[in-house]
Amino acid sequence: MVDVNKTTEELIFDAALSIFQKKGLAGARMQEIADAAGINKSMLHYYYRSKELLFKQVFLLSFKQFSASVIPLLNQPNTWEEKIPLLVAHYISSMQKNPDLPMFVINELRYNPDEFINIVTENRVGNTLFIQQLKEGMEKGFIRPIRPIQVMVSIISETVFPFIAQPMINYMTHVQETSWEVFIETRQAVIPEMLIKYLKEF
């Protein structure tokens, strides 16, 4: 049912996000998005001339919202060891909800990097409590002395890569659709364990 309290643009965004998440850019149809938004196709084209433009706008905003959502986790008043599992769970949950987001980001970073650089600049992690905790632990000798950015890159790469490489992983390991969720749940447990052990045991 269409929410009468939302603007036409909000209805289009919600409908497009839902359909793009389920079917991707190739599988989505403008008529389907228009129907889900409760408008006609001509009205949809008035706001967005092409499916590609709509896809870009939807996922650009999704990436911006996702980037901003990480900062509160990094500033929570808990230990750095407690933050790592929370960050891993957050990244994995976000990828499950937006499976097209990683490839979209990669393509945009390659061909249109300026917009993403601006988003990352707005949401710098360098001044967060998590980074400060890592630096303090390294100074006191409790944590392996590496640059904190290496920790963030490890978290991102370890959580995001399986979603980018899912077809290859399925082929190599014969993971079926029913067991993919089990595979990801295992990753969610393994990544923090490996990373924390690496940082503390040296």
List keywords for this structure.
single chain; 202 residues; Arc Repressor Mutant, subunit A; Tetracycline Repressor, domain 2; DNA binding
Number of helices: 11
Number of domains: 2
For the secondary structure, the number of strands is 0
Strand pairing plus helix content: what structural class?
mainly alpha
Spatial shape: globular
Descriptive notes:
By secondary structure, this protein is mainly alpha-helical. The chain folds into 2 domains: 1-49, Homeodomain-like (Arc Repressor Mutant, subunit A); 60-200, Tetracycline Repressor, domain 2 (Orthogonal Bundle). It contains 11 helices and no strands. It has helices at residues 8-27, 30-37, 41-47, 51-74, 80-97, 101-111, 113-122, 129-139, 148-164, 166-173, 177-200. The radius of gyration is 20 Å and the shape is globular. 23% of the residues are buried. The model has no long low-confidence stretch (mean pLDDT 86). One of its GO terms (molecular function) is DNA binding. It comes from Mucilaginibacter robiniae.
